Each structure stands twice: as structure tokens, then as C-alpha cells.
Amino acid sequence: MKKRVALIWPRGLEPAYALPLPYASIVSNTPAELCEFRLFDLALDQRSPEELGRQVSEFRPDLICITSCGMNFRQALEAVRAAKAAAPEAVVVAGGPHASAWPKGVLKHPEIDLVIKGEADFAFGALVRELGASAPAWEKVPGLVRREGGRLMEAAAAVVDDLDSLALPDYRFIRLDEYLRRGYGLFCDGRPNAPIQTSRGCPGTCAFCGVSAVSGRLVRHFSTAYTMRWIEALHKEFGIQWFNIIDDNFTDDPAHARAFCEAALRLKIPGLRFGTPNGIRMQRGDAELWRLMKRTGWEHLVVAPESGSAKVLDLMDKKLKPGEIGPILADIRSAGLRLRAFFIIGYPGETSAELKETLALMKRGGFDYIELLFFQPIPGTAAFEKLVAAGEINEDFLPSSFSFGERAYISKDLADVNFPLLFFKVKLADALKNPGNLWRLLRRTNPRATARKLAGLFFNMLGHRRKREL
Fold it and tell me: Would you kindly state where each structural domain of the chain is located, as residue ranges?
């Protein structure tokens, strides 16, 4: 008998920039005879807990699934509690970045019964089979974390070794067309766009990052033939022209990146464009690759210097030296690509002197756009565990927004700095330094999301008005 599965996508992530792609893959890779799925997208269709409960009660699910990152885990819990109250016999399963990185913290909450840690594409179907068995063999479920006898039983994170064995994600199930109608698109122009992957995994050891908890440190690739089929399917069904490659690092294997570009050039799709909004590792590429990416349809590259301070980069375990940055940026610009850069400020151990080094790099780096993020410790990361050990935060800490001045954590060395005002000045200078860039930025900005962010920034600036400028 089929299990009825309620998939909940919680509030807290902006629909202009995030959509429930993990659920699209779970649905397409779970045998149809096992489950009947229904998506409750609380970001796209906001509803009260009472309304969610009513709808869940009508569906009568056997399983309730929730995914979240640390930033919106509170909203995920609110939704789970409403759904569980409406379907008390349902099994609640958590997955995604927060549950994968911090399963013991997630399972502190009695509403949540199980966690699938890692890549759930196939693991979810394995879980459903065992839940239906008279004597479940839990060891057959990759990534499963559960309670037993007062302790946690934790399997190794689920990993899909052969990525080509996956069915293409079901974008229609997650209502890609409605997301596009609402202005979905990250760092891209007005063309119909969608996220895809060419690889999973990241070998980086950055102390602030938790992506390896989901996809591991071993980089695995979809074949070029598979990714071309993915692109053609999205173009045919939804008219997609801009493809955002959301790999943790598209250029980790430059040969793979070149093969992808060469195959994409042969597709002959009119107006074809690509982006890598998660950023590329600058050291894993060269002038030839940047030129090839430009010919293939990249308009800009996202890079992540994170800091202009050698000390802070070492604290981050970024494995990058400030002196390496300039020549690489010059090669990217010479290929005709614009530059968007991620910087993290307020990192533990950073002082005003190091922050000024970062601001200096922002000015001299020749960046067309700057994305300024305020450090927030992510549960399960090395930076988080170091702060817990030092007594600066506790194990139940949850981050707030990474930008616009809303912070649950403030580093003690920079506690008196007016970060929202600093953010405003950096973004204003970024927008005004080149009128052409300002126009391109406005074309790529979702008005509703921007209005909400500007309002949040304004009120945070007022709340910090007594603090010093840097």
C-alpha cells in the first residue's frame, strides 16, 4: 500500500532565490508504487499554522518530511508542530543542510522522529520500504539517524556514487513555472532560468561552511551527456535559457568544466546563458577556461575571496593567500567576464585592522558587484564547534540572516561596530561606481525581495545607530 508523504518547504528562504529542488529529486527517484507525494510550499504559498494543519489533516499523511538550513529551522519547527498535531500518527523525517550537519540538535525536538543525513535521493525510498516492513532493517537506510534506548544510532551520510543513475528532478512537481512567475532567479537577467548540477561534493575545509555535511568532500560528476540531457529537457519543457549551476565548485576539475562548456556550445540553444552563483574556486582554473566560459554563455563569475586579511583567511581555513587573488582576478576580467565577489565580515578573531584590509581589497579588486555577508556560525561546522568550546555560544544556537545586519552572533572583537551602516556604505559605493553595473544590477534584482531586505537593513541601522563607524 502506498505511503502518503507530506513534503513541507518552510518559510524563511526568499522564493526569488531558493526553491525546493531536493524534493524534485526525491519525488523523481522514489518508485511511484511506494509513495503518493504532496508538497506544502510555505514560502511560495504562505499560510498560517492552523491552515497548514487543516490541509495536512485532509491529506492524512503517513510521513511528514521537512528540510531546512539553520537560518529557517525555527520556521521548519513551527510547520512540523502544526503538521504533527494534525496527523499525530505520522512519522516525521528531517533532512537537508541543517539536519545533515547537526542531527543531534534536530533530534532534540520530540516532534521529529528520524533524520536522513546527506543525499536523500535514493535513501528516502529505502526508508519508506523499511517503515513498511514488519521487522525494519534500519541498516539498509543510508544516512539514517534515529533514537534507540536513549541514544542516537547514526549511519554514515548517504551519498549517491553514480550520479548518472539518478532520474532528472521533477521541476513540475515543485512548480518551477510558478516560481518563475514570481520572479525566481539568482544573479541572472530576465530570461527563464533554473538550477542544475554538474557535480556534487566539495573538498574544501572552510571552517564556516557546512556543505560537505550534505554532499561530502569527494567530488563526483554527472557525465557531460547527462547534463546536456538535463539542459535540453528544461529548455523544451519550460523554455529555460539561463542555467544556474549550483555545484559547490564547478571548476574543481578544470577538464570536466571544459568538457561541459564544449558540449554546451554544440547545443545551439538561442540565448543560452550560464551562471555559477555559489562561486568558483579561483585557484582551480586558468585564463583559457575563463575565456571558454565566456564563449559558452557566462556573463560574470562569482568568486569568494571572503577576506583581504591573511590572518582571517587562515582562521577560516580558506587555503587562500591575499597575494594570489589579484592575478586571478586580472585573468578573469581579461576574458571579458564581470566579477561578483563574496566577502564575510565579523569572523571570530577578526579585529578592526583586519576588517580594514578586507575593505581595501573590495576597493582595489575591480569587482563589479559585492555580496557582503555577516558571519553567523552554522551548526556542525568547525567554526561553530570552536565557538561552543569557547563558551561564546551554546549547542542550541541557530543563525539568523547572513546579511542586512540581522545577526544572532556578534564577534566580541567587533561588537561596537555599526555593521548595518557599513553594509549600506559598501553597497551604495558598489552601485554608484559604475552606472552600467547599476543598470545591470537593477535588471537582476527582484523588486519585492529587495524591498524587504532594504526595510530590514533600515531598521537594523536604526537599532545600531549608537555604535561606531569603522
Answer: 3-154, 171-463
